[in-house]
Amino acid sequence: MNATLGRLLILGSLLVSTTGAVLAYAAGAKRSREGLRWAQRFAYAFSAMMILATLVMEVALVTHDFSVSYVAQVGSLTTPLWVTIVSLWSSLEGSILFWGFVLALYIAVATWLTRNQHEEYMAYSIGTWLACASFFSFLIAGPANPFLSVPFPPVDGPGPNPLLQNHILMVAHPPFLYLGYVGMTIPFGFATAALLRGRLGVAFIRPIRTALMLPWIFLTIAIMLGGWWAYEVLGWGGYWAWDPVENASLLPWLTATAALHSGVVMERRGVLKGWTITLIQGSFLLTILGTFMTRSGVFNSVHSFTQSSIGPTILVFLAVILLGSIALLAARIDSLEAEGRIEGAVSREGMFLLNNLLFVLFTFTVLIGTVFPLVVEALRGKQMSVGRPYFDSMVVPVGAALVFLLGIGPALPWGRASREQIKRSLLPPIIGGVVLLVLGYALGARNGWTLLTLAFGGYAAQVTLGEMWRPVVQRMKRGESLMTATVQAQFNRGRRRFASYVIHAGAVIVIIAIAVSSTTRTQREVSLAKGQSTTIGAYTVTFLGTDIRNEPHRVATVARVAITKDGKPVEVVEPRMNQYAAMREPIGTPAVHSTLAGDLYVSIMNLDGSGQNVGLLLLITPMVSWIWIAVLLMGLGGIISIIPHRQSSFAAASASEPSPATVAETPA
Amino acid sequence: MSRRMAVILMLLGLAAITAIAQQDPQGVKVPDAEQFVGKPKGTPLTGDDLTRKTQDIAASLRCPVCQGLAIADSPSEMATNMKGQVRELLARGYTQEQIFSYFERSYGQFVLLKPKFQGVNTLVWVLPVLALALGVIIVFAKIRNLEKAPEPKNAAAESAAPAETPEEDPYLARVRKLVKGDNS
To answer: I want to staple A433 with a disulfide (CB 3.0 to 4.6 A). Which of A459, A559, A564, A603 is the partner?
Structure first.
């Protein structure tokens, strides 16, 4: 029953999205208002059916209806309820359905929010969204159908991939990643509409920015959660290995970040429209490429859980969009270009351009490094690898240059500035740079790149905090109280400006934390008998013994390890080996004693059968927690920047008020 | 699957782990090193230097049986053995280059996480640098171009670009109404 209902709903959404796409494009070409209304109805209809289909699957999962193929594949009577619910994205077919669900949510919300606005572009936008929707409906209806009927349903199933059950982060990571990936469809639709119209009016810049910022926030957090998961689960003490699947999530993030920056210049100066649109198209293409990389099984990765036959289908979709986008850009990019001008290279605008250069270079390098082995293998039949040492040596200089820009970019004024002005804004933050450099050196950092990053980071931190604080000071000079000035400057008039500096502050901390944590860690591999101790840094680690714990879905062997610091007991941590019925090899889960200064990471390397001896990997890694915290700060900044302002929908179009990104807080 | 089955599997897993644990990493022999890469060309390492260099080299060698992990990061038996071999080679005075070519002989280029600067692999190093050069040229050309662009209309005219006639953009029409105070 569930299987049939699900299949019907998916066929319905395929039909509705395809028809709706054709209708919407026709309405766009004819500029028909009635046609647009119908396109909106089709968009809602698609969303409704896709969401219902996902609900049907959830009902089937929760009620253990093993006559549905996907439930028979990942369901189990013994898994806890939360695992059953999230097993929707534990395997290929379910996760493609989940993709459809997220796409349906995005399309419904975007259609609703723009229902009475931007009529010129909306038919084409909805058409593009529905075209993407019809592709994914096709995937779900055909090659990755989760709703196949099982003629003789099993009594019980094997349960989802144990890695999914092994850690809570694995539950949170996929939804964020999907919200980030799928969300890129919305700005892609807007950008395609602008290209098809051959015009991008000022009023339409803001929705594009918001539509880009939202998935950017999700993607930022998703990348962090992925790294955190690797850190907490994989047991080697790192959070980023330049694995193809990790790179796949980073690539669209890089281009989207570039687009958010070039979007500011577009809004402020009327230039770089074609370029921003190109970056948005690129971000969407990279999300599809990422899906292909994750799902096709052509890459060797710790994160690819599923290998399947949908690879070629996605590749065809990718090729169609790539060629379509290139053709469209080639035909229309000129008609979007320059209404405005810029007045000098050493200016805020100039730094935005450099920023874009670096982000694109970053993307290009990661992309080359990721696909190169595949190309070589295809062309020459030889296997080769491009791994961490390559990426580290190529990307670290780009990262350092980005931190440098993070400092001088916001310090430079817009437009043409006098030599005197430039000096006045660029010189003082050198203090911040020197302070952090000296501090880092005193605390033991010796790596050249780390010290350089600290110097640039200190500079950028001083600029960021100074710029954040400046409008408040100006308002207080005009006689406002600290309270009013802060609220007015940061949360009302200058919200977007404030938000961007919150994001920058987060970025500075993340980059410093990455530089420090990857170059100053202490590592020991020790073998301990029961009761034996060893020291690492200021910590003493004692192996107390092992326990065997029977949990509903697994059997765990837990090593109890007492940590003391300077003679005082700190914590008893329990790194463990989890044995799932469905897996041959046990999965290790390390234990981490986290502090703001640094983490002590304890991971089981081997364990003898008697529980008397254990081999442990011990790692002291400074500043790791700052990465997670600072990425959350970046996400928070993103959220602040897209909360609608009371008058915001009119602010962008009103001639008398400059856009809030650049508010009148800057001195005249 | 039954609980008993699970326990048996777990015991098997533990037995495998124990087998690994009992291997003394110092005891790994690399008898064929001299045959493949000749006499050691460096000085033998000991103590902390040895540990650090082993770690460095292990981070650049790919574990052949894992999913894209360096042998430094992999808990597998093979990676543990290879780490032992690296350590022994270093202790006998082999240089980094010799050790890389030793493993390359055994497992092919696949094992090198940092591609060698030769043949088609040169591209992976050169292309990003070319892209940087090209990018710099484009950005400077673009800036020059935009500097020479005609003086824009004043700010007000720019924001409310004349192309946005009310017929085209009902949203702007609403704004105009609002600005005029005709708040219908």
So the answer is: A459
